[in-house]
C-alpha cells in the first residue's frame, strides 16, 4: 500500500513535523497552523530530479566495465550489443524522448 506523508508531533521538541520525499519539514508548535502549512506543502508540485545524459553514459560504462571483468566474454558481448542498441535508439542521447515515427509512407 502506498505511503503518503502525514504530520506527526515530536513531544521531545514540542513541534509538528512532516516528512516529504525523505526530508523532514518543521511545521511549528501549533497544531492548527501545522496542518495549514502541511496542506500548503502538499499542494506544491514536487521537484523532479534532472538526470543528464552524462549520468546515463557513466552508469552504462560502469555496468559494462563490471560485466567485462566479472562475467564470461559471451555475456559481456551480449550486454554490450544490447546496451549499444538501446543507446542508439535514444535520439541525441537523451533518455525519456523516443523518436517520432511517421505514419505516412513515402
- In this structure, how is the largest beta sheet organized? 3 strands, antiparallel
**Order of helical and strand elements:** EEEHHH
What's the average pLDDT?
Answer: 82
Which class do the helix and strand fractions yield? alpha+beta
Q: Please, how many domains?
A: 2
**What is the terminal-to-terminal distance?**
50 Å
Count of individual beta strands? 3
Per the principal axes of the C-alpha atoms, what is the gross shape?
elongated
Strand order of the largest sheet: 1-2-3
What does the oligomeric state look like here?
Answer: single chain
Bin the helical content. Answer: 40-55%
The fraction of residues in strands falls at 5-15%
Please state the CA-atom Rg, rounded to the nearest Å.
Answer: 24 Å
Low-pLDDT runs? 97-106
How many individual helices? 3
Kindly describe this structure.
With 106 residues, the chain is an alpha+beta fold. It has two domains: 8-43; 53-93. Helix content is 45%, strand content 14%. The chain has helices at 31-43, 53-70, 73-89; strands at 8-10, 15-20, 23-28. A three-stranded antiparallel β-sheet has the order 1-2-3, with helices on one face. Helix 2 (53-70) runs antiparallel to helix 3. The longest helix has 18 residues, at 53-70. The radius of gyration is 24 Å and the shape is elongated. The N and C termini lie far apart (50 Å).
Amino acid at each position: 500500500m502506498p505511503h503518503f506523508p502525514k504530520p506527526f508531533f515530536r513531544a521531545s521538541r514540542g513541534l509538528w513535523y512532516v516528512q516529504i520525499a525523505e526530508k523532514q519539514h518543521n511545521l511549528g508548535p501549533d497544531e492548527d497552523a501545522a496542518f495549514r502549512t502541511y496542506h500548503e506543502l502538499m499542494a506544491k508540485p514536487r521537484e523532479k530530479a534532472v538526470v543528464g545524459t552524462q549520468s546515463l553514459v557513466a552508469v552504462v560504462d560502469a555496468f559494462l566495465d563490471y560485466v567485462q571483468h566479472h562475467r564470461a566474454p559471451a555475456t559481456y558481448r551480449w550486454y554490450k550489443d544490447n546496451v549499444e542498441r538501446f543507446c542508439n535508439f535514444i535520439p541525441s542521447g537523451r533518455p525519456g524522448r523516443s523518436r517520432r515515427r511517421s505514419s505516412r509512407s513515402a
